[in-house]
Amino acid sequence: MTALFALATSLLWGLADFGGGLLTRRTPALTVVVVSQSIAVVVLGTIVLATGAWSEAGPRLWFAVAAGLVGPVAMLAFYQALALGPMGVVSPLGSLGVVVPVGAGLVLGERPGLPQLAGIVVAVAGVVLAGGPQLKGAPVQRQAVLLTLLAAFGFGAVMALIAEASATLTGLFLALFVQRVTNVVAGGTALYVSARRGTPALPADGFPWRSLPALAFVGLADVAANGTYSLAAQRGPVTVAAVLASLYPVVTALAARGVLSERLRGVQAAGAGLALVGTVLLAAG
């Protein structure tokens, strides 16, 4: 079940990133984050009320609050790094956040077998290559690298924190709700400050009402991915769950290929193949 939940996480995150990427072509990235997460808050709030998840409130929710604070910082750092570019270097480097939950699992005493260790190495290499790194002839600013590493650490920290935020299914609903509320508060504050400084918060034609279904999908897919990852980490080795969940860049690349007809470069195809081999090794181990 660990592999199944973790692969579902990579699918959901990959599709959410693809959808978010399309939306940010027309709407400021921070606005996409705040609106999509606000929709997720409404849905999760309804689920929490319907399931009586408030009874699960306890000290572990502080992990959800921390994840909610770290997430927007990581996203902003990542978007800024993408702006500095080149994207072909920034994007795959962002997936290196997997080392945080994997390292946490090793510190907590998890000891993967030889097939799993091989699978971890192969899968991580595949994820990096699937991003299509363009190192030749593409100068990289030091600031872009530092921002990307900050974002990667943040993404990995969110994975580790949300896995510790609950012990039951209803508790997970409450933890995800708290995380998203924190996301909206933090992101909304940043959006307000940005608007006060003169940065447009909306497209030229006003609020993107026509994009609401897409924004809802992005927000809910991201929430669902956090949930499936938490379930994966609770049901098996965190080292395995984290690596399988980090395959989302492959999903994003394949979605771009299928929807936008973007061609995979040779290095990306090789990376996708390595990621698949790594997945098989992890599942078999």
From TrEMBL:
Residues 3-130, 144-282 form the EamA domain. GO terms for cellular component: membrane. The keyword Cell membrane does not apply. The keyword Transit peptide does not apply. SUPFAM superfamilies: Multidrug resistance efflux transporter EmrE (SSF103481). It comes from the Bacteria. The chain crosses the membrane at residues 32-54, 61-82, 114-132, 144-163, 238-260, 267-284. Keywords: Membrane, Transmembrane, Transmembrane helix. Belongs to the EamA transporter family. InterPro entries: EamA_dom, EmrE-like. This is Membrane protein. Pfam families: EamA. It comes from Streptomyces poonensis.
